[in-house]
Amino acid sequence: MRTSEQAKRDIRSRLDNKLGLAALPRLIAFALITVVAATEAFKSKAYLNRDTGIATSYEESLAVFSLASEKTTQEIADYAKEIIADYPNFLARPSLTLGLLKARFARERNQTDLSTSVFPLNLLCFGPPKDSSKAFRTKQAREYSGTVLCSLELPILGGLLSQSPESVHCDSVEAGGCLRFTVIRKSMDNPIHSLSIDFVTEIAEMYKPSIPGKSYPRSKFRSAIYYATQSRFHEYVMWRFHRLFRKELQRYLNSS
Q: pLDDT tens-digit profile of 125-151?
């Protein structure tokens, strides 16, 4: 007859064989609960190519705004760009990261460094926003049943969370991927009194996070850690930013 200790060892052995080390970060992910609203208004997905180390993500939210005053399409697009361009500063808001991060504009390099508050560690470095509206309309507008109002890209130039050249010191002049923000005006039955906006955010253009490492292929264990930490936190941050975008845009549309 087996003892209780033998039974426990058998259970642990079966779990180890079934789950493996790569499953550990996934279990941790369940413990690190992120408050992301599971609603139809916000959709997200993320992918890491283990062969190349390139990470991508896609977040989308659709909202209908009431029009209290007349605004031209160009005015709406310009204001949307202002909200998007302030994204690095949004990351440093105490209400979002509890004061653990700060954003500093390095005028000599014309970029914004996102670093920790306690230690001077640059996590990500963003270059100046680039207007990709024209190229985006030409290349991808057919995928949407609407009009692309604007598309803005924030180049990722380095940081500890990136594998860009000279990433630690943020001295790279070449982008190691980017964050892309696209605002699409959807068709509406009553466009005079309402405005339907599809807001899309993406990690794009060859971004390689440092957490999965540089080995070929990337280990399942480190890839799982990336999904459980940085990727999950990015999803939460984008959910918050989508909410802010809707709030600020509605406030602007209500203004005279």
A: 999 999 987 766 555 555 656 788 999
